[in-house]
Design brief:
301 residues; alpha/beta; Arc Repressor Mutant, subunit A; 2 domains; six-stranded mixed beta sheet; two-stranded antiparallel sheet; 13 helices; 13% strand; DJ-1/PfpI; DNA-binding
């Protein structure tokens, strides 16, 4: 049962904390049993929005499977704003050295920098703090105008709501994009992995809409993309006509249901081929009758 430990600083922004916490809580609701813990140097943590949070002062026992997230706090300048002591920064560093992932939202990147975790690594933070982060941690490679960056077990995100994007990305990396899409949908949010790289997942790339009928069709295709799925069966699953499903699906995603299924197949086949499978065997695994269609679709891509 992995733990997500949130390290809380005074004047933290509630959404910096609540966004990622909601993502991992949603994953737990979906059957991936994350335990959320909240740690601070003092038990009562005032937030920038006026609510005081009660946190534990004892760190949970962490393993390399666990995640530590440092939400950001209100600060016009980073210098002298976080107040984390040497012992806390050492805990961050030790968790990463043991193989664990350490992440931050917004100003939380400064805590990672003070722990030495940004040295030689790419990172980001809120656009208003990027210049100061680069000046305070000259060995860090600050990337501007992105939502998040992940580099060697150190994940940093930009301002406020981008913590949700980063948390969804971490969830997709650990459990696959289907779970991230499911959690994002439950949150009525976008499922996206557009940090500093192009979106690579068809499941996420075509889930950034709020059409419930189309999401239900996608749920069926996601679960059975290796099978033959006639349009009539997809339409029947949502109680609509075939032409209506095609029209709604294309309007919401930009492609037809068949193209979406093919994209999932090709994506899975590329994963298998990259790990040593032949084109022929990969085509068979993902549901193509032979390798010709897979080769044609890969060439088109």
């Amino acid at each position: 049962m992995p733990t997500v430990a949130f390290l809380l600083a005074p004047r933290l922004h509630l959404l910096d904390l609540a966004g990622p916490a909601q993502v991992f809580s949603g994953a737990a609701d979906a059957g991936h049993h994350y335990t959320l813990r909240y740690v601070a140097e003092r038990p009562d943590v005032p937030t920038a929005q006026g609510l005081t949070i009660h946190a534990g002062t004892e760190w949970p026992r962490l393993t390399p499977e666990d995640l530590v997230i440092v939400p950001g706090w209100r600060a016009r300048r980073l210098v002298g704003s976080s107040g984390f002591g040497a012992a806390t920064l050492r805990r961050l560093r030790e968790h990463h050295e043991a193989g664990g992932t350490v992440a931050s939202v917004c100003a939380g990147a400064d805590a990672l920098g003070r722990a030495g975790l940004l040295d030689g690594r790419r990172c980001t933070t809120h656009h208003q703090l990027q210049d100061e982060l680069a000046a305070r941690h000259p060995r860090a490679r600050v990337v501007r105008d992105v939502l998040y960056v992940v580099d060697d077990g150190v994940a940093t995100s930009a301002g406020i709501a981008s913590g949700i994007d980063l948390a969804l990305h971490l969830l997709a990396t650990r459990h696959g994009p289907a779970l991230a899409a499911r959690v994002a949908r439950a949150m009525v949010g976008y499922a996206r992995r557009n940090g500093d790289e192009p979106q690579a997942s068809a499941m996420l790339r075509h889930r950034s809409h709020l059409d419930d009928v189309v999401h239900r069709v996608q749920d069926l295709i996601d679960a059975r993309f290796t099978e033959r799925l006639p349009l009539a069966e997809l339409a029947g699953s949502v109680g609509c006509g075939e032409r209506t499903v095609t029209r709604l699906f294309t309007a919401a995603t930009g492609i037809t249901p068949l193209r979406y299924q093919q994209a999932l197949r090709v994506e899975r086949a590329e994963h298998l081929i990259g790990r040593g499978a032949t084109v022929e065997s990969a085509a068979h695994v993902v549901g193509f009758a032979d390798a010709r269609m897979l080769r044609r679709l890969r060439a088109r891509t």
